[in-house]
Amino acid sequence: MDLHGIGPSGAARLLVEVGDITRFPNRAHFASWNGTAPIDASSGEQVRHRLSHAGNRQINRVLHIMATVQLRNPAQGRAYFDRKKVAGKTSMEAMRALKRRLSDTVYRRMIDDATTTTVTGPGGQRGTTTDSSVTSSHPQAGSSEKSLPGPATSQPRTPLPTSA
Asked: Polar residues bias: where (predicted)?
């Protein structure tokens, strides 16, 4: 949610849909998966690219909302969009380029977060494990917290009376 234009629902959607970001070997694969990789639409002397209509549409929508929010405010996204317009791109081409750039930014942030989580461990601090506690490194389990010695046995149930 630290990225400009990503709210709680967008961040949740990214986390749910993407899952493990390390399954994408690079940012180009991530862009192809989310539909922000450009598709060649050239004809003759005219060299153009268009936005892909394939890919994960939910993530593409999150990136589109992120781009729209950045265009409304004087942010880095707005400056990038304006530079593309000055370079001769149409509004749609500049928006496509901005969405691809935001896809790369999201990918980079998620990779950084995944790397940080792996290094620090589940407790958020280096060296912590799931079985450590405040008072000792190996907490003792009470008798009520121990698992049963064998499989549970089921008790026969009394059948319900049938109505006539």
From this structure: 127-164
**Residue 64 to residue 153: CA distance in whole angstroms:** 55
Tell me what pLDDT residue 40 has: 76
**pTM for this prediction:** 0.65
Mean pLDDT of the chain: 78
Q: What DSSP assignment string belongs to 89-140?
A: --HHHHHHHHHHHHHHHHHHHHHHHHHHHHHH-TTSSTT--TT--SS-SSPP
Instruction: Please tell me the distance from the alpha carbon of residue 24 to that of residue 11, in angstroms, as a whole number.
Output: 18
**Which two tokens mark 93?**
């081409």
Q: What share of the chain is helix, strand, coil (3-state, %, to 5)?
A: 50, 5, 45
User: Would you call 38 helix, strand, or coil by DSSP?
Assistant: strand
> What is the domain partition of the chain in residue ranges?
8-120
pLDDT tens-place string over residues 69-108 = 999 988 888 999 999 999 999 898 899 899 999 999 999 9
Q: How far apart are CA 153 and CA 28, in angstroms?
A: 54
